[in-house]
Structure formats: structure tokens, C-alpha cells
Design a protein that fits this description.
Blueprint: H1 24-29, H2 42-46, H3 53-65, H4 75-81, E1 84-91, E2 94-95, E3 110-114, E4 123-129, E5 142-145, E6 152-155, E7 163-168
Antiparallel strand pairs: 1-2, 1-7, 3-4, 3-7, 4-5, 5-6
């Protein structure tokens, strides 16, 4: 007879996870090919069952710091909880002010957007690379985000983050 957990899943079910490295961003890359699931919960994201934009970032942080918990976060909660390093408007993937890679932002920082001035922060992803290597955050740079599709790398110029933007830094502790 097989031992099942409280959700009737067996420990014999497994997933091979390949990460870029041991950094926060590296742990995030371990979630490629996990299905997009709007409104996922920590059990789903921690178990690589399904992720949404906020939960995948929190699950990657949990794996990075080696701390598991079941608190569920949405985008607005992350904006309120994690340290902010910049805030600006973005159009066509270009910030309203000059934002320097390495000085103001770095790979693994989170980018959250509020699409309507009176709305809540609605989408979030992680900055991936200064892809055009010009030292400035712009539409030619890449980020990783989920929702409604699975985790993917896109360019900022594709417009997913046009609006009121805040950059967050995932806390280590």
C-alpha cells in the first residue's frame, strides 16, 4: 500500500527542476514549464503544480532563503511588504526617468505595475537582463513573468509593464 499525503498525493511523484544557479533569479528559473494558474495558492506554487505572477516570485524566494511557509501574497501585498528601490511611469517599456542597471536596479529585482492611476498594482515580474547592454533600463531589456501563461522571458517593450511601476528587491532574510 502506498503512503499518500493529506492531499492524496504520493511521494513517488517527482519533478526534475533545473535552475540557472542558486541566486534568487536562479531559483525563479526553476519554475519554467510550470503551468500558469491565475490565483494559485502557495501549495500549488511551492509544489510546482501551477503559478501566477505573484506566487511564483514568492515561491522562488522561499526556495532561495530555504524557508517554507503558507502565507499567500498578491501583487499589492508584495508592493507593501518588500523593499522599494524605484518608482516611475513606464510607456513602451521605457521609464519616465533614467534608471541605471547595477546602480538602481539589478537582475532579480521585481517590477510591479498599476495599469490605472486609481487601481491596485495588478501584475509583477522579475527583471532578468540588460539585454541590449546599454546600462539603462528600457524596452530592449528582458524580464520574467507568469500569467496568464506559464513563466516566460519577454522584453519590456512588449508592454506588459506599461503604467505606474515600482521596483522591489526581494528580501534575503
Amino acid at each position: 500500500m502506498q503512503e499518500n499525503d493529506s492531499r492524496n498525493l504520493t511521494a513517488r511523484v517527482f519533478r526534475l527542476t533545473i535552475r540557472l544557479d542558486e541566486s534568487y533569479l536562479g531559483n525563479l528559473t526553476g519554475f519554467f514549464n510550470v503551468p500558469g494558474l491565475f490565483g494559485s495558492i502557495p501549495y500549488q506554487s511551492n509544489g510546482y503544480i501551477g503559478v501566477d505572477c505573484a506566487d511564483v516570485l514568492v515561491a522562488a524566494r522561499r526556495k532561495w532563503v530555504g524557508k517554507e511557509d503558507s502565507k499567500d501574497f498578491n501583487v499589492s501585498m508584495l508592493v507593501n511588504a518588500w523593499p522599494k528601490v524605484a518608482r516611475f511611469e513606464m510607456r513602451g517599456g521605457n521609464p519616465s526617468e533614467e534608471i541605471a542597471w547595477g546602480e538602481k536596479v539589478k537582475p532579480g529585482d521585481l517590477i510591479a505595475v498599476r495599469y490605472r492611476p486609481t487601481g491596485s498594482f495588478a501584475h509583477i515580474g522579475a527583471l532578468y537582463a540588460d539585454s541590449n547592454e546599454n546600462g539603462k533600463l528600457d524596452g530592449g531589456d528582458q524580464m520574467i513573468h507568469a500569467g496568464p501563461e506559464a513563466l516566460q522571458i519577454n522584453f519590456l517593450r512588449q508592454g506588459s509593464f506599461d503604467g505606474d511601476v515600482v521596483i522591489l528587491r526581494p528580501p534575503r532574510g
